[in-house]
């Protein structure tokens, strides 16, 4: 399932010109937050594409920042069995709403930090 989400995110990234132009050097947390809307708020095809890009992006971070997999333990986490991708997105969204001062930072690091706070390795 996670591999499917990662592939979906990559396809979306390659086919969505707005995503390609925004990624640039990094995909900021602010840009991610724009894409990570609530499912009930996704009304247009583009919003669904953006939401699925977000889901794949967060799922990939979740899969690749597990305990012992990074060079910085501050970004590592241990996601319990049964946690869904939508839950990971909700955790990211809540973390960003609680820490708006971090919206300009690389979204990869902020998403990993949010997951690490929610699911610490210890």
Describe the protein's topology.
Layout: H1 2-15, H2 17-23, H3 29-35, H4 45-64, H5 85-98, H6 107-118
Helix pairs in contact: 1-4, 3-4, 3-6, 4-5, 4-6, 5-6
Quick one: overall form? globular
Q: What's the tally of helices?
A: 6
Classify the oligomer: single chain
Radius of gyration: 14 Å
> Residue-averaged pLDDT, rounded?
83
The figure for the number of domains is 1
For the record, give the distance between the C-alpha atoms at the N and C termini, rounded to a whole number. 26 Å
Helix content range: 55-70%
- Could you tell me the number of beta strands? 0
Q: What does the main sheet amount to?
A: none
Order of helices and strands: HHHHHH
Q: Hey, roughly how much beta strand do the residues contain?
A: under 5%
Overall SS class: mainly alpha
Model regions low in confidence, pLDDT < 50 over at least 5 residues? 13-24
């Amino acid at each position: 399932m996670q591999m499917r989400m990662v592939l979906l995110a990559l396809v979306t990234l390659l086919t969505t010109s707005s995503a390609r132009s925004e990624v640039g050097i990094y995909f900021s947390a602010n840009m991610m937050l724009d894409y990570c809307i609530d499912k009930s708020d996704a009304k247009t095809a583009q919003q669904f594409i953006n939401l699925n890009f977000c889901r794949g992006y967060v799922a990939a971070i979740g899969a690749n920042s597990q305990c012992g997999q990074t060079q910085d333990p501050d970004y590592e986490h241990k996601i319990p069995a049964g946690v869904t991708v939508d839950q990971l997105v909700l955790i990211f969204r809540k973390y960003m709403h609680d820490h708006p001062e971090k919206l300009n930072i690389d979204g990869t690091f902020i998403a990993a930090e949010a997951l690490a706070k929610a699911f610490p390795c210890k």
